[in-house]
C-alpha cells in the first residue's frame, strides 16, 4: 500500500503530523518499557495488584471525590517510582554487574525512593480513614 505524505500537500499540517508520529513512538516505547518491567519485576507486579485492591477499596468506602483522587494518584506514584527504580537497576547493571559501593548506593537510593512514595500513600490512607 502506498504511503500518503500529507506534509507535501499542506506544509501547515507538518508540525501536527510530526507531533502525532512522535506521540505514537512514545506510546510504543512506553509500552515496551512497561511490558518488560511487568515481565521481569516481581515488585512492580506486587505494587500493581496492591494498587488495584486500593482502587476497589477507595470506590467501595464512603470517601469524598478529593480523598479518592488523592489515594488513586498516590498509588500511581508508587508504581511510577517502582519503574524509575527498575530503570536505575538496569542502568547500574548495564554499566557493570561487579559489586561496588556506588552501585549499591544508587540501587539503595532508588529503593528508598519507592519506600518514601509507599509511606506517603500509606499515610494518606491512615489519615483519611482515622482522621
Ligand atoms: N553491583 C552492586 N554493587 C553493590 N551492591 C549491589 C549491587 N547490586 C545490588 N546490590 C545490593 O543489592 C540490593 C538489591 O539489588 P538488586 O539489583 O538485586 O535489586 P532487586 O532485588 O531486583 O530489588 P527490587 O526488589 O527493588 O527490584 C541493592 O539495593 C544493593 O544494596
Walk me through this protein's architecture.
It is built from five helices and no strands. The longest helix has 31 residues. It has two domains: 40 residues; 90 residues, Helix Hairpins (Orthogonal Bundle). It is mostly helical. Helices cover 85% and strands 0% of the residues. Helix 3 runs antiparallel to helix 4 and helix 4 runs antiparallel to helix 5. Bound molecules: adenosine-5'-triphosphate (ATP). Keywords: ATP-binding, Cell membrane, Kinase, Lipid biosynthesis, Lipid metabolism, Magnesium, Membrane, Metal-binding, Nucleotide-binding, Phospholipid biosynthesis, Phospholipid metabolism, Transferase, Transmembrane, Transmembrane helix. It is found in: Cell membrane. It holds the Pfam family DAGK_prokar. This is Diacylglycerol kinase (ATP).
Overall SS class: mainly alpha
What portion of residues belong to β-strands?
Answer: under 5%
For the report, how would you describe the main beta sheet? none
* Overall pLDDT level: 94
Count of helix runs: 5
Order of helices and strands: HHHHH
- As a percent range, the share of helical residues equals over 70%
CATH topology of the largest domain: Helix Hairpins
CATH-derived architecture of the largest domain: Orthogonal Bundle
What's the overall geometry?
flat
Uncertain segments are none
**Any idea how many domains?**
2
Distance between the termini: 62 Å
Overall CATH class of the largest domain: Mainly Alpha
- Name the ligand types: adenosine-5'-triphosphate
* Oligomeric form: single chain
The radius of gyration over CA amounts to 21 Å
Transmembrane segments: 46-63, 69-88, 109-130
Protein name: Diacylglycerol kinase (ATP)
Keywords: ATP-binding, Cell membrane, Kinase, Lipid biosynthesis, Lipid metabolism, Magnesium, Membrane, Metal-binding, Nucleotide-binding, Phospholipid biosynthesis, Phospholipid metabolism, Transferase, Transmembrane, Transmembrane helix
InterPro entries: DAGK, DAGK_sf
Amino acid at each position: 500500500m502506498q504511503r500518503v505524505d500529507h506534509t507535501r500537500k499542506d506544509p501547515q499540517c507538518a508540525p501536527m503530523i510530526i507531533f502525532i508520529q512522535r506521540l505514537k513512538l512514545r506510546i510504543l516505547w512506553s509500552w515496551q518499557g512497561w511490558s518488560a518491567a511487568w515481565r521481569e519485576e516481581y515488585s512492580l507486579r506486587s505494587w500493581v495488584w496492591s494498587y488495584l485492591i486500593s482502587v476497589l477499596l477507595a470506590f467501595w468506602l464512603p470517601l469524598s471525590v478529593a480523598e479518592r483522587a488523592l489515594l488513586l494518584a498516590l498509588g500511581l506514584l508508587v508504581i511510577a517510582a517502582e519503574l524509575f527504580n527498575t530503570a536505575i537497576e538496569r542502568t547500574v547493571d548495564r554499566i557493570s554487574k561487579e559489586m561496588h559501593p556506588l552501585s549499591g548506593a544508587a540501587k539503595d537510593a532508588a529503593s528508598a525512593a519507592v519506600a518514601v512514595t509507599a509511606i506517603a500513600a500509606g499515610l494518606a490512607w491512615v489519615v483519611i480513614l482515622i482522621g
